[in-house]
Amino acid sequence: IRRQILQNGKILMDGQPKTRSGSRSLSLDDHTVAVLRRHRARQATERLAWGSAYQDTDLVFAREDGLPLRPEYIGTLFNRLQKKVGMKHIRLHDLRHSHATLMLTQGISAKVVSERLGHSSISITLDTYSHVLPSMGEAAAQQSADAVFGRSGKA
After folding, report:
1. What is the mean pLDDT of the chain?
2. 118 and 104 in contact (C-beta within 8 Å)?
3. How far, in Å, CA of 129 to CA of 133, rounded?
């Protein structure tokens, strides 16, 4: 992540992430990489169809002509897709929260979660997602006891 599209009124601007830690590289799973490669191939087809009118903005997600998508369009599209698949309504930003919560509940280190989210410090992550930590604390206590007393986790 090295740039973001900002909106000031009706004007879209190219900008930098809010913080230094916002500029980052993210590891992706094989399935997501495959989906993004198919998406990039579709973009190449669109680029050819538009010819010289195509504006190469080097964005992962852009309009067919290469120009940036408006943030409200993304939100509207997300809402439409939720209805189409019968999903309970959530805000697009809630996906970020869900991703962080899932990582923490899967035992992924808070430091790794913090880096993936682009938080400037681990304390922001821990403060924001502390509701996930009580059950993790219980699991950690059990795992620690099992390791000390040589149990396999079974009663």
Report:
1. 89
2. no
3. 7
Report yes or no: 126 and 110 within 8 Å, Cβ to Cβ.
Answer: yes
Average pLDDT over residues 114-131: 89
Handedness of CA 48, 53, 55, 60 (dihedral sign): negative
Looking at residue 123, what is its pLDDT?
Answer: 93
Task: Identify whether the C-beta of residue 7 lies closer than 8 Å to the C-beta of residue 13.
Answer: yes
- Separation in Å, CA 91 to CA 2, 97, 145: 24, 10, 40
Query: What integer pLDDT is reported at residue 6 of this predicted model?
Result: 87
Instruction: Tell the residue number behind the tokens 């009580």, with chain if given.
Output: 134
Residues 21, 2: Cα–Cα separation, whole Å: 10
* pTM over cut 0.85: no
Distance, CA of 93 to CA of 86 (rounded, Å): 19
Strand partners, 15: 4
Contact 90, 34 (CB under 8 A): no
Classify 154 as helix, strand or coil: coil
Three-class DSSP category at 14 = strand
Are the C-beta atoms of 98 and 88 separated by less than 8 Å? Answer: no
